[in-house]
Amino acid sequence: MEIRNLSKIIKQQRIMIPLTLQELSAKSGVSPSHLGRIERGERFPSAYILRKIASPLGFKENELFILAGYLSTQPSDITEADAVHSGGILDPYVAKVLSQETVEMQRIIVGILPILKSIARSMSNK
Amino acid sequence: MEIRNLSKIIKQQRIMIPLTLQELSAKSGVSPSHLGRIERGERFPSAYILRKIASPLGFKENELFILAGYLSTQPSDITEADAVHSGGILDPYVAKVLSQETVEMQRIIVGILPILKSIARSMSNK
DNA sequence: ATTATAACTTGCCAGTTGTCAGATGTCAAG
DNA sequence: CTTGACATCTGACAACTGGCAAGTTATAAT
After folding, report:
1. Residue pairs spanning A and B at CB distance below 8 A
2. Which CATH class name applies to B2-68?
3. Chain A: nearest CA to B36, how far in angstroms?
4. Which nucleotide is nearest to A46 (CA to C1')?
5. Is the Cβ of A47 closer than 8 Å to some Cβ of chain B?
6. Hey, what CATH topology would domain A2-67 get?
7. Is ipTM strictly over 0.85?
């Protein structure tokens, strides 16, 4: 039901600006024929296409993604602060040291946790 | 260059949790074979798929979208926590996992870092 | 009316995605 | 060594996306 709307909203917005399909095509780099099909619901725009047409139509990227059902209505960012609220405390010193590493490295380090726990389990089970 | 990373990050995260392809498949509703191909870079995940696997992997939705290049970098503001750690970001998932451990355990985990680096150095000095 | 031109539509096809079913690899138990 | 059970990979296929080129339908101007 949101999806039917998407095509209408895109068309409405284009007409209102106003732009022709060719003009929108020129600004977005998406072929006019494809844009036309999207507007009349014959094709569903991929994320790639949505990203291209968002700005020329005056949308924020997120808005179109939500309308398309690619993102849920609330971004619901889990920030570090939120994480702390939902669980225990994150030691500031620990946070500082870790934040100086790449995210990849951070994950590797944290990945050691389940390993340690698994070892602990097998030791106590004996 | 971000795109090569995506497959690696997804695999890393799955292994780290840890989950098998089948388990992730069960939680996300994406076929195991497809997940496997995504992880080894043979297929590129659509937005539809990213949305499905984000939560089971502990990612916020837009995080994966950004990594996939479907969204440009955060339009939203920088968190105060990030500002404090002048320099790097602390991955939210990492923060969440760590904050559920005791501070003592957090410090132990971070303490492993210099050890690993020392080992890595001696390996590259070959 | 008749061209001319701009706007949109349709036919077709190459390239991808995601699924199912079956093959392959792996490892512990008998 | 063989069996059974997992986990992962491969082959084949239907469905879909998006572009190009040719077709149709307005809209204007003479």
Report:
1. 153
2. mainly alpha
3. 20
4. D17
5. yes
6. 434 Repressor (Amino-terminal Domain) (1.10.260)
7. no
